[in-house]
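Hey, sorry to bother you again with one of my protein questions. I've been staring at a protein lately and its backbone has me curious. I owe you a coffee for this, so here goes:
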Amino acid sequence: MGADTEQRTYSKRGNISLLKTSLIPVAALFASTSVLAQTTPAPDDIVVVATRVPEKLADTAAPVSVVTAAQLEGRQALSVFDALRLQPGLNVGGGPRQQGETPSIRGFTGRQIIITVDGSRRNTTETLRTPLFIDPSFVRQIETLRGASSAVHGAGGLGGVLALETISAESQLAEGQTVGARALAEYASGAGAQRYAGQVYGRAGAIDALFAVASRDSGPIRQGGGVELRPEDSNSKTWLAKVGVDLGGGFRLQGSQHYFALDDFGPNNPQADAAFPYMQAHRSTQDESVVNLTGGDAAGKWSLKATLYRTALRVITYDNPDTTPALTGSNGLTRTTGGALQSTLRFDVGGIANTLTAGIDAYEERDRSTSAGVGNSVTPDGKQTVISGFAQNEVGLTPWLSLTPVLRWDQFKTSVDSGSSPDKTSDRVTFKGTAAVRPLAGLLAFASYGEAFRAPTVSELYQNYSVATGFSNFRPNPALRPESATEFNLGLAYARSGLFAGKDRLQLRGTWFRSNVSDLITSVTVGTYSNPFLGRRPILQYQNVSRARRNGVEAELGYGIGALDLSAAYSRVRSVDRDSGANLFSPPDKLNLGAGLRIAPIATVRWNTLVVWAQDYDSTVLRRRPAYSAHDAFVTLTPRHLPFRLDIGVTNLFDKRYALYRNSTVYPDTYEEGRSVRMTLSARY
């Protein structure tokens, strides 16, 4: 038997053994005769905007998943990625530091996915730092739309969309309540993290307002097996202010300001382990302003939404003269200013129902960067402007059959301030079509074809750096073309109550997909140079290098009866270079299992098991990872007649030592946090 065959056989046996042992604690919990507590909201209670028209999750003909504020609270999440990593098709890489956490959807990463907060784009030129700075206590809901989405949501949606909605006084106030407050204190032993948060909110007449603050202080991270990741000293402070005004006539105006600041000392590659030689102090800030106007007629026949936003992400790296060589500071800023306007009209033509949505989107992304006080040619100063228009119509041919075509036109222009290279201007038309069938109550089947594209960024086009002591050197490529994708999805969803008993709840969603990617933008080595401290180092350039094909499946299952709540989610994706046959970046198969149990009127316990199969097929061998499983346990105590709640949890209960699969190959084995005891005390008025 050859070595490759032996490796595959070993991996398969290891995965089977892993799955069996991982299911034991979950099965033990399921076997209990006690009643489990509901932690997952029913799909009829969740409204999503995957198609830019609000609709219930159970009625959405798209591969979409949702994380609610209640689920973040139940997991005692220190980061929104604590919960997102459990969703099918969504993976998180970058190691255990919060500043290095980066998401991928169906194997697409970075600018290949769209991230929004309250409709504001979180664009960034950073490839090693997280694009999403937000405290979990500020989040009302996170929606993940998987698959080619440019026709609906604009440039960048090759992998999908990650859309966050923050809390407001409306979402926090109970019915009949006019004023309220919430506070929490949390401790997590894995990084010695202390997190504090507070909110005040209220309504007076037509005006409501909310103000929220949060902070987090962390130290060295204890990795699985007991090894500490040093240095890792970080602290963050953040606040959110939001005011809403009911204007009358069905219209509402809402404005918000969000600020986040993170200070840390560690490697200037936050995904690296302690072997990385370059340590510096950093400060990352995110400053975001959003204004939303919504309205419509009382009958629901017409609605309008307008959004204006500006978000600025700044990363400052400070001088460190105590290293060899001495490290100079840098200051990078990405500011995105944009807006969107859309209107939806519902009408009948010849007895056929139509829901027509049309709108325009536009934004300007401006990059500014200095190193040692002078212009930084790795991320040169420049801007990218995108203007687009779209139209979408859901046509209800019969009560059980609908067709939804979407057409979008985008024009983008990219330029570098120095004028050293010509401007890059182009446009693109993208299409998406969905057919949905609802033959039975609660049953939905859909098929869709979608197109997506992403224009190259300023730094991908114009980066130019030639310094002998640099970690890497770079070359520009103004001929770089946009990367694009076409994708087919086949999906099935089923939601029903009273299936086996009077009050049980069943939710099922599954999707098969195939996407073809052309002109994939990838950083490749085009030469080497001699670094006096590190030896031979690569010269890198972004190029259109491959045509890729991705295939995969995703499935979610939830069942509840009374207080019983069980869930499962599975995903698998494979990506192959259609020219060479090489296996490209493909997150490993994973299965997430969850359960909850109300053991007393005031006490609920929850268990979560994440099983990840071996990634032993990537043609980039350094990215391969062995299989692993991680288990978490949580207890929630809610005393009667008291406004307090106590959460106690243990993450990575068996102290598993594992490293996440990700696209970086320089320092690929930054192991995740080991066993961590979490305690959260919260109060709500």
Observations:
- Residues 1-13, 20-39 have pLDDT under 50 and may be disordered.
- The two ends are 67 Å apart (CA to CA).
- Residues 3-30 form the longest helix (28 residues).
- The first strand starts at residue 47 and ends at 48.
